[in-house]
Amino acid sequence: MTGFPLPVGSMPTVGYGCWKLGKDKAADIVEKVITMGYRHIDSASDYGNEKEVGLGLKRVIDKGICSRADLFVTSKLWNTYHHPDNVLPACKRTLSDLGLEYLDLYLIHFPISLKFVPFETRYPPEWFHDPDAKDKKMEFEQVPVQDTWRAMEKLVDAGLVKNIGVSNWNCQGLRDLLSFARIKPSVLQIELHPYLQQPRLVNFAQSNGLVVTAFSPMGHGASYFNQNCSTLNEKIIQEIATEKGVQPGQTYRWGVQRGCAVIPKSENDDRIRQNLDVTGFELTDEEMKKIATIDRNMRFNDPGVFCPAAFNTECPIWD
């Protein structure tokens, strides 16, 4: 079986990212953004809010704002569930929390396999194996990527997932995956913004038929260490926005014109609307070249940085 290949255009170009969306407001915001016109919702078990996201989904479907078929819902397999025995239960838990019968896309969240933590012990388990231990740290489990991917393929075979893919992977990881995948990955989701443009990775993924999805498409106001990675105050971004008569945040049109999907996140009503409106203007070749000049190879979501500092464990994935 070849699975459900992701047809061109079936995943809306602009989605809403649910990372760091508080449980107390997630249902209301998901209902709001879908009512405003979003149809692509990006979630993950590790975000800890899938029940609330699911409640928002249920509200809009029950109210007739849209049908389930109108929505494209993504979730992600967390690091502690890479062993093939744990992939199906993890997916079913996500489906139960979201109140769905299937996912449009299921991604391996990181190329990091951690020791299993039972649901009844802690869910989501996050990064520490035992957060109450005196010398708490991450504990790795040696699970070949091929074993995890075979279990992901079985989710497609079972009709629980329409498409599978990966997040936070590099070119070598993709080469390895493509060498044995029976069902090819449909999507690569990565941090991608004017400060981290990654042209070689984007080109490699796209040349191999993957859709690239950019999270934090204009950077992020605060990283794990409160380092401001937002590009919105960059002079070039400000000038282009003024020239186009749009807000600086809308210049993530830059990512769309590179052929990428984007999943911005805001809780401000005006910015939520603005983020969805990237079709009313186009950046010129000269403007695209100007944005290319501010690439700093600046990554704010890097386990090689935050794992040693926050979790007492070396865990590089980009080096």
Helices, strands, pairings?
Layout: E1 16-17, H1 23-36, E2 40-42, H2 50-62, E3 72-77, H3 84-98, E4 105-108, H4 145-157, E5 164-167, H5 171-180, E6 187-191, H6 199-207, E7 211-215, H7 235-244, H8 253-257, E8 261-263, H9 269-276, H10 285-292, H11 303-311
Parallel strand pairs: 1-2, 2-3, 3-4, 4-5, 5-6, 6-7, 7-8
Task: Characterize the structure shown.
The chain is α/β, with parallel strands linked by helices and 319 residues long. It is 36% helix and 10% strand. Strands 1-2-3-4-5-6-7-8 form an 8-stranded parallel β-sheet. The two termini are 36 Å apart. Mean pLDDT is 93; it is low at 1-5.
Quick recap:
The protein has helices spanning 23-36, 50-62, 84-98, 145-157, 171-180, 199-207, 235-244, 253-257, 269-276, 285-292, 303-311, and strands at 16-17, 40-42, 72-77, 105-108, 164-167, 187-191, 211-215, 261-263. By secondary structure, it is α/β, with parallel strands linked by helices.
- By DSSP (H or I, 4+ residues per run), the number of helices equals 11
Globally, the shape reads globular
Report the mean per-residue pLDDT as an integer: 93
**How much β-strand is present in the residues?**
5-15%
Structural class: alpha/beta
Helicity level:
25-40%
Task: Give the ordered list of helices and strands.
Answer: EHEHEHEHEHEHEHHEHHH
Taking strands numbered 1, 2, ... along the chain, how are they ordered across the largest sheet? 1-2-3-4-5-6-7-8
Distance between the termini: 36 Å
